[in-house]
Design goal:
Number of strands: 16
Distance between the termini: 78 Å
Strand order of the largest sheet: 4-3-16-15
Radius of gyration: 27 Å
Number of domains: 1
CATH architecture: Alpha/alpha barrel
CATH class: Mainly Alpha
C-alpha cells in the first residue's frame, strides 16, 4: 500500500545530505580561519575614553573641530610640523610655520586615531609615518626637516607636496621606536591584521636588539660638578693651572636615561613578545619609581645618569623640575597601576587651590618657578585623573585647558589650544593640541 508522502523521501534525503555537507564545509572553514587568523594580543590603554568611568569633555563633533584646526594649520603631505605662529600685523610679522617634523608629534596623532577607532585614517597615517620616519634598520627617526625649496607659502594648500631633508642614521631613537610599538599594539588590538602583526613583531625585534642587555641612555646632558679643591698643605704647594676656561667648565657630560622616555605600558607589552626584555621592564619600573623627588614635591627627576649611577633631577641652570616631563613619568606609572598617591594628592592641591599648573617648580621650595602655565601638564593631568577615577580633578584640568583655546571667529587658530608671548604673538604647537585631543575626547 502506498504511503502518503513516500515520493518526497528521496528529496528530503538529498536536502539533508546537502545541508550536512554545507555544515561540514562551514566547520572546516571556521577551523581554517581560526588557525590562520593573527593571534590575539589584547592591549588596553588606561586613560582613554573607552576605559573612563565618566564622560569626556568634548563630544565627537567638538573633538573633530579641534582635529580639523590642527590639520588645517600644521598638516603636510609628510606629517605634522611642530608649530604654527599667527601673523601679528601690528608688529609686521607674517604667519610662520616650523620646518621641523617631530616623531613624538606624529605618534601622538597616531595614538589618537587608534583610540578613536578610525581605521581608514589610521592606515593612511601609518603609511605616511613609515615612509618618512622609519630608518633602514627599522627604528624611528627622532625628527625630520622639510627642504626649504619644497615648502609652499601656505602649508595646507590643497595638493601641495613637501619633501624631507636627508637624515643620518644616528638620529634614530629607541624611545620613539618604543612609542611607535605602543601605537601599533593598540592598532593591532583594534584591527588584528597580518600586516600590522608583521610590523609590530619586526619593530619589537628591532627595539629588543637595542635594549637586549641594558636600558640604553637616550641623551647626553651637562651635569653640574664641583670644582676640584686644592690642599694647601700638600708638598709641593699646588698652584692653579693656567688654562682656558671651556664653555662646559663646571659641568660633566654624562649619558642619561630620560625617565619620561620609559613608556612602561609599552615595555610590558614588548616583553610579552620578546621575553628576554622582562628584566628591562622591571628595571624601568624601578628607575621611574626611584626618581620621585620628595614627599613635599612628589614629582620626578629628569633622568638617570648611567656613569655616575645617580638621578639627575634637573638639567637647567636653576634647580627646577619640568612639570610635563615629570607628569609623563606619573602617567606611565598610572598606566601600569603604580601611580604614587602623593603625586595625585599634589595635583589635586595645585588645581583646587591655585587653579593652574605651571611649567616648572623649584625643587627645594616646591613653589612654581615661572608664571608660564603648562598646557601639556594640564592634558597629562586629565589622563591621570581618568585612570585614578578622579572626576573632580579631570574637570578642573580640562576646564583650565579649555580656557586656553582660541574663541575669536577671526582667529586663524580658532578652537586650537594656543600660547601667547609678551608681544602678543600667538603660537599653536602640535604637542599641546594632540595631548589636548587625547585628554578632552
Amino acid at each position: 500500500m502506498a504511503t502518503i508522502g513516500a515520493n518526497n523521501r528521496p528529496r528530503k534525503v538529498r536536502w539533508l545530505l546537502g545541508f550536512g555537507i554545507l555544515l561540514l564545509v562551514a566547520g572546516v572553514a571556521l577551523l581554517w580561519l581560526r588557525d590562520t587568523a593573527p593571534a590575539a594580543r589584547p592591549f588596553a590603554v588606561p586613560g582613554s575614553q573607552d576605559s573612563s568611568p565618566f564622560a569626556a569633555y568634548l563630544d565627537d563633533k567638538g573633538a573633530q573641530t579641534l582635529s580639523d584646526r590642527l590639520n588645517t594649520q600644521l598638516m603636510t603631505s609628510s606629517g605634522l610640523v611642530s608649530w604654527y605662529q599667527q601673523a601679528q600685523e601690528e608688529l609686521g610679522i607674517p604667519a610662520q610655520w616650523s620646518h621641523k617634523l617631530i616623531a613624538q608629534d606624529q605618534l601622538l596623532y597616531g595614538s589618537w586615531l587608534a583610540e578613536r577607532g578610525e581605521q581608514r585614517s589610521f592606515a593612511q597615517w601609518n603609511e605616511q609615518f613609515r615612509a618618512g620616519f622609519i630608518s633602514p634598520d627599522g627604528l624611528v627617526y627622532a625628527e625630520r626637516t622639510l627642504t626649504p625649496e619644497s615648502v609652499p607659502e601656505k602649508l595646507s594648500e590643497p595638493g601641495s607636496v613637501v619633501e624631507l631633508e636627508p637624515v643620518a642614521d644616528e638620529m634614530v631613537s629607541w624611545s620613539d621606536s618604543l612609542h611607535y610599538f605602543r601605537v601599533l599594539a593598540l592598532a593591532y588590538d583594534h584591527w588584528p591584521q597580518d600586516e600590522l602583526d608583521l610590523q609590530e613583531k619586526a619593530l619589537a625585534a628591532n627595539v629588543a636588539r637595542v635594549l637586549g642587555t641594558n636600558l640604553e641612555p637616550d641623551q647626553v646632558v651637562a651635569i653640574p660638578t664641583s670644582a676640584p679643591t686644592m690642599d694647601p698643605a700638600a708638598t709641593p704647594t699646588p698652584r692653579p693651572q693656567s688654562t682656558v676656561e671651556s664653555a662646559d667648565a663646571g659641568f660633566a657630560r654624562d649619558p642619561v636615561i630620560r625617565l619620561a622616555s620609559l613608556d612602561l605600558l609599552a615595555l610590558r607589552a614588548l616583553a610579552d613578545l620578546e621575553p628576554d626584555l622582562a628584566n628591562r621592564y622591571a628595571e624601568a619600573v624601578a628607575l621611574v619609581r626611584g626618581g620621585l623627588i620628595s614627599d613635599s614635591l612628589p614629582l620626578y627627576a629628569y633622568g638617570y645618569a648611567t656613569l655616575q649611577q645617580g638621578y639627575v633631577r634637573f638639567v637647567s641652570t636653576a634647580p627646577v623640575v619640568d612639570l610635563a616631563d615629570s607628569l609623563t613619568c606619573a602617567l606611565h606609572l598610572a598606566e601600569i597601576g603604580e601611580l604614587d598617591p602623593r603625586t595625585l594628592s599634589w595635583l589635586v592641591e595645585q588645581l583646587l587651590n591655585d587653579h593652574a599648573l605651571y611649567a616648572s617648580y623649584h625643587i627645594a621650595q616646591g613653589q612654581a618657578s615661572t608664571a608660564q602655565e603648562s598646557l601639556d601638564g594640564l592634558a597629562l593631568t586629565a589622563r591621570i585623573a581618568r585612570i585614578a577615577n578622579h572626576e573632580q580633578l579631570y574637570r578642573k584640568a580640562v576646564d583650565r585647558l579649555q580656557w586656553h583655546r582660541a574663541t575669536s571667529p577671526t582667529s586663524s587658530v580658532l578652537d586650537a589650544v594656543f600660547r601667547q608671548d609678551s608681544q602678543g604673538i600667538v603660537t599653536i604647537t602640535a604637542r599641546d593640541n594632540l595631548l589636548a585631543l587625547l585628554a578632552l575626547s
